[in-house]
Each structure stands twice: as structure tokens, then as C-alpha cells.
């Protein structure tokens, strides 16, 4: 297939005003393309994503990806073709823009349910080898007719209805030996070994407003369809997918706030950024609960206030970490194989190893 330019064919970035439709609730804006993704898509959220981007870069030692040797090899392959990179769920566009600056000879396409706010800011011009387009990865992947060297998806899994299907879709548009790069964060409170901290009732020892908020969020999430925290199953999905080889998955735990003693400089900064990230995202849950939850405004207000106080507190009452998951898989050289049957959870899989069990009703 000829290398079709992605920056010239993606025109949405020039008319974002008309395409960036969203509804507004409690001063926050939400996308309306699908009912799967819950978080806001406004400039406040994009600022948070910029901060989260710094956090992930720090975890990656300043890089934009894991397995730098694989990325370098993929992008400097001997074949004489234009390198093309797809960023799925590009958010604020920061990763796409920085990868475009890092590899000026490559072309980058960022797709998302809404466009990055940076496109409306003339003081931050987007590199000419980077374009953005509105697309839903749940139903628009088959409209992409380029062949990519890298498909990147970071922190998008809560908006992906079927991760297994997404991996098949990504394999179809990846070049042989192309790379799938995945990052997820599971916001649940875990201990220093990555085990879920059990949820407690309000008033009991170990009660956490933050965990309570995540429990309420899970109930909202489950009302809209099946559990979508796919990273728990990434390894198994990718290893069972005939289109991939060399699957690598790595987990990194980051404390929420600089509470552990004897932290190194980088670990402290990571913990501070993680704390800041949660403080920035939590107020958005208010709008989501008021829109989709069966919760009173008074309850929601108190819960979010409690979260903000608890996360700021040092040392915190609950010593928790958040788990980040990094995965890579290499597209093998075999012809693309489509999915034959829907993914089945492996025997013994328990979703409550990955998310809080909702509190029993009083
Ligand atoms: C938490 S943000 C992460 C943004 C960016 N990847 C990053 O790491 O900074 C998730 C983004 O994925 C987008 N998203 C969620 N579900 C999506 C879907 N089905 N298709 C395309 N984009 C999606 C959201 O609109 C949002 O911008």
C-alpha cells in the first residue's frame, strides 16, 4: 500500500469549533460522541492531562515510551517508507506533539472523541507533522486506511468497550514488526505489593473518601455496560492474539503523595504529581455523579470535599499507591487474522482483584 499522508488528510484540526460538540454540566464539558467515556474533555481536563503526561514521562526516565530500543528499531526500519504513528485517545495532544517533535520525519495522527484545546491556542502551534481528528476507537478503527509503525494508547481504556477487539483492529493497521504501545492507570488504592486495599464503611478505621468515590464511580460505570478496566487482561489478550508477538507488561506503583519515608528525589516528585493529578481529577466526579449516579447533591458535595481533604493530608490516613501498567506488543509478520469469537475472561478472573467492591447497602 502506498504511504498516504496522514497530516494532509486529517482536516478536523482546522475546524474544531464546529466538531468539538459537548454538553456542559457543573461548569465541565463532556463529549457526546458515545456513552462510554465519562471524564470531561475541556481545557481544565487537558491541563490535568499535561500534568499527568509529566508524571508518565518521569516514570519513563524522561522518555515518551517503554522499550526505547524497540521503538527506535521500528522507526528506523530499513524499508523506504514514511514513518506513521497513531495516538488513540490523544487527549490534550501532548504526547502526539512531543513524539512529532522527537521524530520530525515521522507523521503523527492523534484521534479522540474531541480535539485538543491547544489547537485553539495560536501561541502553541502544532508541528506540521502532527494532525488530530475526531474518531471513536470503538467504531471508527476500520475507517483508518493508513498503515502505522506505532499505535499508542495511553489511559484510554475506560473509553474502550472491548480491548480485545481494539487489539485486533490495531493489528490490522500495524505494519509487520510495528509496535503497539499501551499505558493504563488503575486509580484504585493498593498497598506496596499492589494488592487492593479493602474498602471500609464511613466511620470505620481505614475508611477512605477517595476509595468510596471510586466505588460510586464503578457503580456509574457498570450501569452503562460491562467492566472496561481492560489492563488486567491485556497480557492474556495479547498473548492469545495471533497477530502479536513479544508481549511485555510491566507494573509501576506510585504513592499518592510524598508520604513514604526516605524517598529519593524522583520518587518524591512522582508521588507529588500523583497527588496533584488526583486533586485535579476528583472535582470532575461531582458532575458525573450528579448526571449519572443516584446520589444527592449534598452527599456528592461532602464526598468530594472529603476526598480533597484526605488526598492533601500528609501523612495520609490510608497509605495507598496507584498502579500504572505499561505494555508493548510487536505485530508479527503473518497476514492479519480477524477475531473469531468474543473474548472470554480466563477462569478464576475476579474483577474485585482490580476494583473496589461496592459497599453493601445500609
Ligand atoms: C484520560 S485521557 C488520556 C489522554 C492521553 N492519551 C494522555 O495520556 O494524556 C483519555 C482520552 O481518551 C479519549 N477517549 C476515550 N474513549 C475514546 C474512544 N473510544 N475513542 C477515542 N478516544 C477516546 C478521551 O476523550 C480522552 O481525551
From TrEMBL:
InterPro entries: Methyltranfer_dom (IPR025714), SAM-dependent_MTases_sf (IPR029063)
UniProt-listed SUPFAM superfamilies: S-adenosyl-L-methionine-dependent methyltransferases
Gene Ontology molecular function: any one: methyltransferase activity
Domain of life of the native organism: Eukaryota
Pfam families registered for this protein in UniProt: Methyltransf_31
Domain Methyltransferase positions: 83-196
Residues covered by region (Disordered): 1-27
Residues in the signal sequence: none
Name of the protein in its database record: Methyltransferase domain-containing protein
Species of provenance: Tulasnella calospora MUT 4182
Amino acid at each position: 500500500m502506498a504511504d498516504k499522508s496522514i497530516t494532509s488528510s486529517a482536516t478536523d484540526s482546522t475546524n474544531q469549533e464546529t466538531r468539538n460538540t459537548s454538553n456542559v454540566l457543573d461548569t465541565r464539558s463532556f463529549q457526546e460522541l458515545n456513552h462510554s467515556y465519562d471524564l470531561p474533555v475541556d481545557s481544565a481536563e487537558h491541563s490535568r492531562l499535561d500534568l499527568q503526561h509529566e508524571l508518565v514521562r518521569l516514570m519513563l526516565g524522561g522518555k515518551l515510551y517503554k522499550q526505547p530500543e524497540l521503538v527506535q528499531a521500528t522507526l528506523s526500519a530499513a524499508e523506504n517508507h514514511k514513518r506513521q504513528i497513531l495516538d488513540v485517545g490523544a487527549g490534550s495532544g501532548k504526547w502526539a506533539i512531543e513524539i512529532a517533535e522527537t521524530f520530525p520525519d515521522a507523521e503523527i495522527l492523534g484521534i479522540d472523541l474531541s480535539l485538543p484545546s491547544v489547537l485553539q491556542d495560536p501561541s502553541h502551534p502544532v508541528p506540521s507533522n502532527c494532525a488530530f481528528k475526531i474518531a471513536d476507537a470503538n467504531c471508527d478503527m476500520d475507517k483508518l486506511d493508513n498503515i502505522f509503525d506505532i499505535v499508542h494508547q495511553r489511559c484510554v481504556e475506560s473509553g474502550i468497550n472491548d480491548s480485545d477487539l481494539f487489539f485486533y483492529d490495531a493489528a490490522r493497521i500495524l505494519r509487520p514488526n510495528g509496535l503497539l504501545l499501551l499505558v493504563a492507570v488503575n486509580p484504585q488504592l493498593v498497598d506496596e505489593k499492589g494488592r487492593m486495599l479493602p474498602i471500609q464503611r464511613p466511620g470505620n478505621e481505614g475508611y477512605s473518601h477517595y476509595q468510596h468515590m471510586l466505588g460510586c464511580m464503578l457503580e456509574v460505570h457498570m450501569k452503562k455496560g460491562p467492566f472496561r478496566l481492560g489492563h488486567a487482561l491485556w497480557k492474556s489478550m495479547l498473548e492469545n492474539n495471533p497477530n502479536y508477538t513479544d508481549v511485555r507488561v510491566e507494573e509501576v506503583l506510585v504513592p499518592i503523595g510524598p508520604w513514604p519515608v526516605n524517598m529519593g528525589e524522583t520518587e518524591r516528585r512522582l508521588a507529588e504529581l500523583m497527588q496533584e493529578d488526583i486533586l485535579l481529577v476528583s472535582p470532575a466526579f461531582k458532575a458525573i455523579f450528579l448526571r449519572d449516579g443516584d446520589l444527592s447533591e449534598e452527599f456528592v458535595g461532602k464526598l468530594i470535599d472529603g476526598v480533597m481533604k484526605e488526598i492533601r493530608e500528609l501523612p495520609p490516613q490510608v497509605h495507598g499507591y496507584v498502579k500504572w501498567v505499561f505494555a508493548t506488543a510487536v505485530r508479527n509478520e503473518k497476514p492479519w487474522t480477524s477475531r473469531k469469537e468474543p473474548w472470554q475472561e480466563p477462569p478464576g478472573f475476579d474483577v474485585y482483584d482490580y476494583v473496589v467492591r461496592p459497599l453493601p447497602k445500609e
